[in-house]
Amino acid sequence: MERIAAKTDFNGPIHPEGPHKGRCHINTGARSESGTGSGIIFGYDPITGVERTLSVPRVVYEHHHGITIPDGLVVRHTCDNRLCCNPDHLILGTHADNMRDKVERGRSSAPRPRINALKGQQILKMRAKGATHTKIMDTHNVSLSGLKNFLKRQKQPAPLPLFDGPAILN
Q1: Is the whole model's pTM more than 0.85, yes or no?
Q2: Which region is the signal sequence (predicted)?
Q3: Whole-angstrom distance, CA of residue 106 vs CA of residue 8
């Protein structure tokens, strides 16, 4: 933990929910290969003894709570700051929870929702009345590719019914 503390700025931005949540602790050490995401450290797997790359927020969470994070769970940031390693800003959840947070907080690169049954019916009615793709996209907050894929699926012929009777040979 000393290695992490030595490369942490404890005077990061205030949590978005307010000062009562405290400041972000920004890891200033090594980053992932893409240069984004949580800080990383190199350590040893306690079971295999093999060196591996570890996420700083994950290590901090495990140390602070005295647990090993179970498979299938990830560390989520309530502050939406991927470099933050303040244990009070970190919670556990599933990948699905993390993706839901991303969309709800407007951090998704593609926040446009998929087309559900009701929206699909409305789109088909608009299209039948001659609405342009642009008008439909603006009205229903869908992307052009999503709209085109939806319309393409609507044009596919229904599968042929299965026939149980005797084969007819010519």
Answers
A1: no
A2: none
A3: 27
Closest CA to 72 of 103, 98, 41: 98
> 77 has which bridge partners?
90
**The pair of three-digit structure tokens given for residue 135, joined into one six-digit string:** 């008008």
* Contacts with 55 (C-beta within 8 Å, 6 or more apart), sequence order: 38, 39, 40, 75
Q: Where are the domains of the chain?
A: 2-104, 117-155
CB 70 within 8 A of CB 57: no
Assess contact for 80 and 105: CB atoms under 8 A.
yes
| Least-confidence region, from 36-40, 68-72, 102-106, 130-134 | 36-40
Residue of 61 and 82 predicted with greater confidence: 61
Q: Give the ranges where the chain is alpha helix by DSSP (H).
A: 2-6, 56-65, 95-104, 117-128, 133-140, 144-155
The neighbouring-strand residues paired with 52 are 43
The residue among 106, 56, 55 whose CA lies nearest residue 86 is: 56
Q: Report the alpha-carbon distance of residue 12 to residue 49 in Å, rounded.
A: 34
User: Which two three-digit tokens encode residue 145?
Assistant: 């590719």
